Amino acid sequence: MNITFLVGNGFDLNLGLETRYSDFLKGYQNVVTCNRTIDNFKLDIMGDLPFWSNAELAFGQYTEKFDSASEFCSCHTNFCEELAIYLDKQESRLNFDGLAKLIPNLFVNSIKAYKNGFREKQQQEIQTCFDASQGGITYNFISFNYTKTLDECIKLSNNKPLLGHVTYCRSIYDNSFGSVLHIHGFTDRDMVLGVNDESQIANPKLFERTSEEFIGQIIKRETNRLNEEHMDEKCSKLLNESDLIYVYGMSIGETDAIWWQRICTILKTRPKVRVILHSFDAPKEGVIRTEFIQHERKMREKFVNYSDFSQEIKKSMMNRIHITAANIFESMNDLVNYKEKKLNELVVTV
Length: 350
Description:
The chain is an alpha/beta fold. The chain has helices spanning 10-15, 21-28, 36-47, 55-62, 69-91, 103-112, 120-131, 149-157, 160-163, 212-216, 220-227, 231-240, 257-269, 290-304, 311-318, 338-349, and strands spanning 2-7, 138-143, 165-168, 171-174, 176-182, 244-248, 274-278, 321-324.
């Protein structure tokens, strides 16, 4: 049984790190450069911060402002380099050595809680993934983050007794961690920041008379190809081998459309696979569930509409997409301030 978690920036935000583009941009304007093009670029960003809160889409639109691909790439490179420095500083706020005894139980219990928040009917439907497979559970991860916070949590939690086991046909199978892949690279290597495809580039002519590495810097799949680590292929293979796909901390946005399209294809070709989408902005389930049910339907429709399949196929796919407002990593919320919070509790107790 393969469960694959697609993990986005919501994971780091949940830990208490300030890793939104909007957080980074607050200080980006103060970074000193000796390049007039980059300085003007930064001034434009500061003049429209809401637009740049989604920097990937913004870069695609901002191609209209440049006279050459080299100018664009120099600004894009500076942005990525400074973002990497900022994220490293944010990540350093987490004391993994001090949290080493705490994290394993919290993290393992979180990933085991993939059915939390669902009502009985959907829990039973998700359970069919297990009924259709055999052996232990292998937990795989595809990180869309540049940080290594997820990797650190997995490394600290790699404990067989904690992960447990599955009994199948009187045989015992250990659960385990499988692959941990970074589709967008890291802060120190192979960073991928851009758009899904050429349709999201406002001025594709900017790259017409340049070599492939220039446009490869802005189209994610091309960046991964030029990085020569076969990361795109590795992640696709992992998804194709998954029985349950859990998307956490991601907005299901258009700059990652290729992955939603691929998951839709998996849903079409493998009728026993199910997908769970964590919705951070879902309405609360009150006395009447109508508002939440409407939200579920809209999220499912948004997801399957990334594909070009028939309405009949899309409807079949929607039946195997489950929407949850439950934060499975809630116990790890604001870990960056864990020690401070505990000290405050002690003071209150005294």
